[in-house]
């Protein structure tokens, strides 16, 4: 194949790698955002539960205790309902990272192949030049 074909292929692989790396970063950021929000909601739920226990120990009104307990339960339910989304984003993040790594490896393999090919061509050219030089030297010795 011609060098131009390999150059185009290399450019295509670079673009593909760049896109997959960018996608991986976007999905990872979204996963982190949703996961952190979920952790925050869970933390709030724990906080309200501890406030509920304190209020119960201090003899707060039943209505206030029910309100705090319900709010804490709602926070827990919200956090639990987000778990599938968090897990899905975690999986998508891992898949996007795997794709980015795969694309980077493909590009690296092609670049390695091209470097070896260039080195081989250089050695062939040097051999050809050495042979031509030998032929010229032999021709001069025969003429002398």
Gist?
By secondary structure, this protein is mainly α.
Any overview of this molecule?
It is a single chain. It contains two helices and no strands. It has 144 residues and is mostly helical. The protein has one domain. The two termini are 45 Å apart.
Count of helical segments?
Answer: 2
Please mark out the parts with pLDDT under 50 across 5 or more consecutive residues, or reply none.
Answer: none
Radius of gyration (Å): 33 Å
Name the shape in a single word.
rod-shaped
Structural class: mainly alpha
Number of domains: 1
Task: State the helical fraction.
Answer: over 70%
Report on the biggest sheet: none
Q: What's the overall average pLDDT, rounded?
A: 91
The overall strand count is 0
Give the SSE order as H and E letters: HH
End-to-end Cα distance, whole Å, is: 45 Å
- How much of the residues is beta strand, in percent? under 5%
């Amino acid at each position: 194949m011609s060098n131009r074909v390999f150059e185009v292929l290399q450019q295509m692989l670079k673009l593909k790698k760049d896109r997959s790396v960018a996608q991986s970063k976007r999905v990872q950021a979204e996963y982190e955002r949703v996961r952190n929000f979920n952790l925050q909601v869970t933390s709030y739920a724990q906080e309200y539960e501890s406030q509920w226990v304190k209020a119960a120990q201090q003899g707060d009104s039943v209505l206030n205790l029910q309100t705090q307990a319900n709010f804490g339960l709602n926070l827990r339910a919200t956090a639990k309902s987000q778990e599938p989304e968090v897990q899905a984003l975690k999986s998508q993040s891992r898949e996007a990272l795997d794709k980015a790594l795969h694309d980077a490896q493909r590009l690296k393999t092609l670049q390695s192949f091209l470097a070896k090919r260039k080195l081989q061509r250089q050695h062939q050219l040097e051999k050809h030049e050495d042979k031509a030089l030998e032929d010229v030297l032999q021709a001069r010795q025969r003429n002398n």
